[in-house]
Specification:
Blueprint: E1 20-30, H1 37-45, E2 53-59, E3 75-78, H2 83-92, E4 96-101, E5 106-107, H3 112-120, E6 125-128, E7 131-135, H4 140-145, E8 163-166, H5 167-173, H6 183-194, E9 196-198, E10 204-208, H7 210-215, H8 217-233, H9 238-243, H10 248-251
Parallel strand pairs: 1-2, 1-4, 2-3, 6-9, 7-10
Antiparallel strand pairs: 4-8, 5-10
Length: 253
């Protein structure tokens, strides 16, 4: 299969997409992820058979050659920059009954597909995320973090944990709000309003610890907590939070 290049500057390119009941669609938003994109894709594919999974990489204007590293059997979409925008574009082009949104610096664990299907099949579950393990693991704080079990409270279920839900539910909540940050929090809030959130048992997504290593684990951890307090309780806007939360990759653009 060749790369499929959609012009998504004006919104989703596909209105009437054929949906396949047994297919799980994994949408990977990417921006300057040449270091990680191959491992991310390989982790999705490693224990899935033909016709079980489709992968859609949505590039937001990478300047490091990320699109060239996407294999030809993976759909590649070019989109305006913005994680929420990119994920919505990927969902619009997908064909699966279940949608999984995996950051490009994360790696799904073995058995992830069956775990997602099982979790969404539990009574009353509207969506969920995984437990995570941040690597490389350096320092006591990261070691402790990687051994904690994260709660199933919507306020603590974020995009780096790999969010998933059924296509019908995704459509009902209107997709991700196209805001500069906190789109994952708003998705978790919307899913919580429609049912119960859950996590697959005994599986952890590997996610990058680069923010912790760049800024120091304690400083980054405190910044994360303060950002959530400001957003949920003190009236800060996504724009306010994004102004102080830019990554080194974004600052380099």
């Amino acid at each position: 299969m060749q790369h499929v290049m959609y012009n998504t500057a004006l919104g989703p390119a596909l209105d009437d997409v054929q949906v396949y009941p047994d297919l799980v669609s994994v949408v990977i938003p990417a921006l300057n992820e040449a270091e990680n994109i191959r491992q991310c894709i390989a982790a999705v594919q490693r224990d899935c058979g033909p016709g079980e999974v489709e992968i859609i990489v949505v590039d937001g204007g990478s300047t490091d050659g990320t699109p060239r590293l996407v294999p030809p059997d993976v759909t590649l979409i070019r989109s305006p920059r913005g994680r929420a925008v990119q994920m919505n574009r990927g969902a619009a082009a997908s064909h699966g009954e279940i949608l999984v949104f995996c950051h490009a610096d994360s790696q799904l664990p073995c058995g992830w597909r069956e775990a997602v299907i099982e979790t969404l099949g539990r009574p009353g579950v509207s969506g969920g995320t995984f437990q995570t393990r941040a690597l490389p693991e350096r320092g006591l704080l990261l070691a402790i973090r990687n051994r904690m079990r994260q709660a199933t409270n919507w306020r603590l279920m974020y995009g780096d944990q790999v969010q998933f839900m059924g296509r019908e539910t995704f459509d009902q909540v209107g997709g991700f709000p196209e805001i500069p940050l906190m789109e994952d929090v708003e998705m978790s809030r919307a899913l919580h309003q429609r049912g119960r959130l859950a996590r697959p048992r005994d599986l952890r997504v590997i996610t990058s610890s680069r923010r912790f290593l760049e800024r120091g684990p304690l400083r980054q951890w405190l910044q994360n907590i303060w950002a959530m307090i400001r957003y949920l309780y003190l009236g800060a806007t996504p724009q306010d939070i994004a102004h102080t939360y830019r990554s080194s990759r974004e600052e380099a653009l």
